[in-house]
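User: Is it possible to get a 3D structure for a protein together with its bound compound? The compound here is FE2/S2 (inorganic) cluster. I've pasted both below.
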Amino acid sequence: MTNAITTSALRPEDQDLIDRIVTEKAGHPGALLGILETLQEHNRHKYLPMETLDYVAVRTGIPQSQVYGVATFFALFNLEPQGLHTISICRGTACHTRGSRALLERVKLQLGLRDSGDKLTLTTPDGRFSIRTVACFGQCALAPVVEVDHAIRGHVKEQALIREVETLRRRNAE
Ligand code: FES
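Assistant: Yes, that's possible. Here is the predicted structure of the complex:
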C-alpha cells in the first residue's frame, strides 16, 4: 500500500521541521519513536496532529497504519492538544492503595473537569491544565506518585497537591 496522503493541512514551516527531523533521525534504531517524540516536543500544544502523522508516513515511507499504531500505543504521545500545565497521576496498584483515586478526583473537582472515567487525559477548556493518568512511574516506593510539569512528587498529600495546582493557576492568571 502506498502512502497516498494529502498534506495540504500542514504549513510549509511544519513540513520543513518534519523534513529536518526525519533526515536527522532516519536510519537510527527506533527512528520512528525518536521522530515522533521530537515532533511532539516541538509542538506548541505538546501533541501530534493527524496531518503530522500523515506527513511522517510520507517522508519516512513507513506505512501510515504503523505510524498511527506507534502514536496510539505509547502513552507518552498525545493525539489531542495538551494544557499549558500537565498533572499526571499514577493509577498503578501501589499508588491506588495509597489513595491516588482520591487525588485524581480532587484535582478534577478543583479544575472543574467532570469526566468520570479512570484512565483519561482531560484538558480544561481554557487550555491551561491537562490531567492524565499513568499506569506506573516505576517509583512505587514513593506512592502515591504525581508528576507536575515533569517534576515527580512522592508521598503526595491531597492538600499539598491542591496548593501546587492553585499556585500554577494563580501564576497563569497574573
Ligand atoms: S504504582 Fe504508582 S509509581 Fe508504581
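Residues 85-173 form a domain with the Glutaredoxin fold (CATH 3.40.30.10). The beta strands are 85-90, 121-123, 129-134, 146-148, 151-153.
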